Amino acid sequence: MKKIAVTGASGFVGGVLCHTLIKHGHSVRALVRRTSDLSGLPSPSTGENFELAYGDVTDYRSLLDAFFGCDVIFHAAAVVEPWLPDPSSFFSVNVGGLKNVVQAAKETKTIEKVIYTSSMVALGSTDGYVADESQVHHEKYFYTEYERSKVAADKVASQAAAEGLPIVTLYPGVVYGPGKLTTGNALAKMLLDSSHNVTIDRFTGVLPGYIGGGDDRLSFCHVDDVVGAATITRTEKPRFSIPLWVIEAYGWLSILLFHLTGKLPLLCPASVHVLRHQWAYSFEKARRELDYNPEA
């Protein structure tokens, strides 16, 4: 049994990860903020080898306290949004946060391994071909500030590995599955969440078609596969496509609504730039080394 620290524990992936680690007999210390929604986490009072550590990846001292006595760090904390009015938080959390985790892991002498959750966007688009984890982002242009920050963070992870830190980087595609309807679970949020002023809820029929030309390629992975369907909706599959210019117009409208309501958009013009390109990645290495088989 290992003592494991999890950053981003209150998020979509982090919450599922905590439950899974406990299920496999590990002891988990979850790093959360005082303001975090803890509804997706085990209860510390149940005695399931689970405890909370309050802090933030941008607060170095809190990381030292959270990592003390731990064997492994799962770094899943990140700002995952298509757009923010102040993009600096992408870099303070996604890049600066990883720098802090790396340094704290080095200072915490007991850490045997750091597992860092990156993203396929850190590797770049794959127009016309299927890539794998060996692809290096061209850095000629970036579709979103999130993408730019994850590319910069990958350099931090690579440098840490070169300096001898036992760090493993994961590159999941678009993660989906049951759990919190956060931006980290954007697919489920798009299908099910009706809290937006301009809802695009698939099951109410407000999103009657599919986005784009219908021949786009994007990598998806279920949250259970990232950490370790029956047809029940009674809705017909979409019969026509919604042009990307319509979605881009919706994105601009969403940003306008943000300034009126304060609610962050689920889609924005930058999202459309992403959708204009292919993001197809092979999972052969995961199949070979981790027995990953999403086709089963």
Automatic annotation (TrEMBL):
Coiled coil residues, start to end: none
Cellular compartments per GO CC: cytoplasm
Domain of life: Eukaryota
UniProt domain NAD-dependent epimerase/dehydratase: residue ranges: 4-231
InterPro entries: Epimerase_deHydtase, NAD(P)-bd_dom_sf, NAD(P)-dependent_oxidoreduct
Molecular function as annotated in GO: aldehyde dehydrogenase (NAD+) activity
Pfam families named in the record: Epimerase (PF01370)
Protein's recorded name: NAD-dependent epimerase/dehydratase domain-containing protein
Protein source organism: Populus tomentosa
